[in-house]
Amino acid sequence: MATHESHYTLPLPQFDRPVKLLIVVAPYYKDIADNMVAGARAVAAACGAEVDLVEVPGALEVPTAIAMADRQANYDGYVALGCVIRGETTHYDTVCNDSSRAISLLGLQGACIGNGILTVENRPQAEVRADPAGQNKGGGAAAAALHLIALSRKWAGQTKGIGFRA
Ligand SMILES: Nc1c(NC[C@H](O)[C@H](O)[C@H](O)CO)[nH]c(=O)[nH]c1=O
Ligand SMILES: CC(=O)[C@@H](O)COP(=O)(O)O
């Protein structure tokens, strides 16, 4: 089994105004999803963020639900959670690639999203990544969303070129 080098983790951002996060989770593998939600909730709580949660059937529906919420609701950011485990067919690649690409495109359009959709070969890989006491990828996705929200607030209302001398 591969060993994993630990990586540097940014300190969590601090906020002077309330933050509202939406967790969108696909509980396709329910125990895995439950652990990721627990990790994400703990990180949100550490930043004082309020959390709502909605469930969708599978990873492919996660970006669609985030896009709907971003149009119709008032969340500051989103945590995308789920797990895709390779099966016998090429469907794995479709679910992994399309969910990831759609989430990235929503991010480029301005939504603050942490992507915590696991894409793994087997269940043990998913379990260690979902475990809040293990790799805690749910917590990492929540932290990513919170960092983007902090950046978005830092630059809100700024106009290009103002404040610089030519
Ligand atoms: N195989 C996995 C799926 N597949 C289902 C799709 O995400 C989608 O719900 C369906 O195609 C209907 O649009 N979803 C997962 O979250 N994880 C999988 O391993
Ligand atoms: C990741 C998947 O979509 C997978 O569960 C589908 O399994 P299969 O390729 O065996 O149909």
Notable characteristics:
166 residues; alpha/beta; Rossmann fold; four-stranded parallel β-sheet; binds the ligand Nc1c(NC[C@H](O)[C@H](O)[C@H](O)CO)[nH]c(=O)[nH]c1=O; binds ligand LTPLIIQW
Question: In words, what does this structure look like?
Answer:
- This protein has 166 residues and is α/β, with parallel strands linked by helices.
- The protein has a single domain (20-155), classed as Lumazine/riboflavin synthase (Rossmann fold), CATH 3.40.50.
- The protein has helices spanning 30-46, 61-72, 91-108, 123-130, 137-155; strands at residues 20-25, 50-55, 77-85, 113-120.
- Helix 1 packs parallel to helix 4 (123-130).
- The longest helix is centred in the last third of the chain and has 19 residues, at 137-155.
- The radius of gyration is 17 Å and the shape is globular.
- The model has no long low-confidence stretch (mean pLDDT 95).
- The ligand CC(=O)[C@@H](O)COP(=O)(O)O binds next to strand 3 and helix 3.
Quickly count the helices.
Answer: 5
Span between termini = 57 Å
Form type: globular
**Integer count of domains:** 1
Oligomeric composition of the shown chains? single chain
Examine the secondary-structure arrangement and name the CATH architecture.
3-Layer(aba) Sandwich
CATH superfamily: Lumazine/riboflavin synthase
Report the CATH C-level class. Alpha Beta
Range of helix content: 40-55%
